[in-house]
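Q: Second attempt. The first request was missing the SMILES, so the protein and LYUYDEPV are both included now.
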Amino acid sequence: MAKIQAQPFRLALCQLAPSTANKQENIATAQRAVKAAAASTPKPDLIVLPEIWNSPYAVPSFREYAEPIPAVGGKDEGEGETIKAMREMAREAGVWLIGGSIPEIEASTDSIYNTATVYDPHGNIVAKHRKVHLFNINIPGKQVFEESQTLTAGSSLTTFTAPFGKIGVGICYDIRFPEMAMVAARQGCIAMIYPSAFNVTTGPMHWTLLQRARAVDNQMYVSMCSPSRSPTASYQAWGHSMVVNPLGEVLCEADEHEAILYADIDPSALATVRQNIPVTNQRRFDVYPDVAK
Ligand SMILES: NC(=O)CCC(=O)C(=O)O
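A: Got both inputs this time. The predicted holo structure:
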């Protein structure tokens, strides 16, 4: 288990209005939310946006709205307007930004990804996560979705290190796969943050349960940031953006409407929980070596 090096920080989740068909309008909505979050007191250190916020969350839309995204540390030649706007949001606000996710096009392979980017307060891209587990489910009569019709899955885990600590990033359905959060915790992450968009079928079943489970399993903070719900959208997002502490307690939760949520993250809470209930030191990888590989 890697050592934790972190400081207390303030997290803000922007539960944006559902995306419309107008990309510029969606960008303006995100700009307003980031500005409002950054203007709050005390000022947040890290702001988070939801999953696929510049495009409708719909399989046929991903290619139409996709943009090229540079590699980590890459310059801005050829990057899309949403990436330029997010660099500017982080720079103007002087904050770290987990810019939710947007559809990305990789020109060399013509593949489309569901990709989250992270910016430092200078507008540099410090991390890029391509959704690893594509959301393909079929609950007849309720929720059917098949991201793999147009999306390609990413193939790596993602973390970034800020002055306030190391953070793991996943996207929505990724939270159902506990290995990702476990590896991040073992690498010294204090939080797993997932830009997300559950729906009104799976949201009430599993949204809170999964965040509390990942938090308790790994004794770390866990947070999901969703869009708000629109009665007219084809995909009804669950909303309920949330932050859970390392004991598995819900620190804050939105309802289904537009909102900005704030939470104070205290890394010493990880140490306290890990000392009181020392499962992190009691793992028996000698008994289940496959997991440790
Ligand atoms: N956008 C997603 O990955 C949705 C995941 C979801 O709703 C779930 O139940 O898992």
